[in-house]
């Protein structure tokens, strides 16, 4: 009887003999269903990771906005100490906001000031009121920065 070498791995071959007629035998590799299942699981994990990353980026942007608004509040107090009036001029306050942040002084007088900050990277805005001024956005307490 002649010796038949084994078929190469990873290929399909037809069975031999009368019983194996018409059937294919799997020799190795993955089916398309297995590959698609793995891709589906990886896609779901990537979507979850992207959502968490985006959430962290929004938190970092809001933290930078709060920091910038706190710095403006300190500059406003220094300006008030020297001039006995709050300023509505950001250049006079030596403001250097974070990239993308826009600060707006809504009201400034001898009795108080209010301002807001926003960044196009996030839908949130932060507000502050100091002294006797009308409430602005979600800020209703004197000197407390509020974001919404």
Write structural notes for this entry.
This protein is α+β, with helices and mostly antiparallel strands and 148 residues long. The protein has one domain. The chain contains one helix and six strands. The strands form two sheets. It has a four-stranded antiparallel beta sheet, covered by helices on one side. It has a two-stranded antiparallel sheet with strand order 1-2. The mean pLDDT is 88.
Describe the secondary structure blueprint for this structure.
Elements: E1 13-14, E2 24-25, H1 32-83, E3 102-108, E4 112-118, E5 125-131, E6 146-147
Antiparallel strand pairs: 1-2, 3-4, 4-5, 5-6
Write a concise synopsis of the structure shown:
With 148 residues, this protein is of the alpha+beta class.
| Bulk shape | rod-shaped
Percent of sequence in beta strands:
15-25%
Overall average residue pLDDT:
88
Contiguous runs where pLDDT drops below 50 for at least 5 residues: none
Query: What's the Cα radius of gyration?
Result: 33 Å
Order of helices and strands: EEHEEEE
Query: How many runs of DSSP E, i.e. beta strands?
Result: 6
Terminus-to-terminus distance:
85 Å
Tally of individual helices = 1
- Strands of the widest sheet, in order across it, are 3-4-5-6
> Which percent bin holds the helix content?
25-40%
Q: How does the helix and strand content classify structurally?
A: alpha+beta
Query: How many domains comprise the coordinates?
Result: 1
Please give the largest β-sheet: 4 strands, antiparallel
């Amino acid at each position: 009887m002649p010796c038949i070498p084994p078929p190469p791995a990873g290929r399909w071959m037809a069975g031999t003999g009368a019983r194996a007629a018409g059937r294919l035998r799997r020799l190795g590799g993955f089916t398309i269903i297995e590959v698609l299942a793995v891709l589906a699981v990886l896609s779901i994990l990537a979507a979850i990771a992207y959502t968490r990353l985006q959430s962290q980026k929004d938190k970092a942007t809001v933290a930078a906005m709060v920091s910038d608004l706190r710095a403006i509040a300190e500059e406003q107090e220094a300006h008030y100490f020297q001039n006995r009036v709050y300023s509505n001029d950001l250049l006079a306050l030596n403001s250097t906001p974070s990239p993308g942040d826009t600060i707006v002084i809504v009201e400034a007088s001898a009795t108080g000031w209010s301002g807001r900050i926003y960044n196009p990277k996030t839908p949130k805005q932060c507000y502050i009121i100091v002294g006797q001024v009308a409430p602005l956005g979600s800020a209703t307490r004197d000197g407390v920065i509020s974001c919404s």
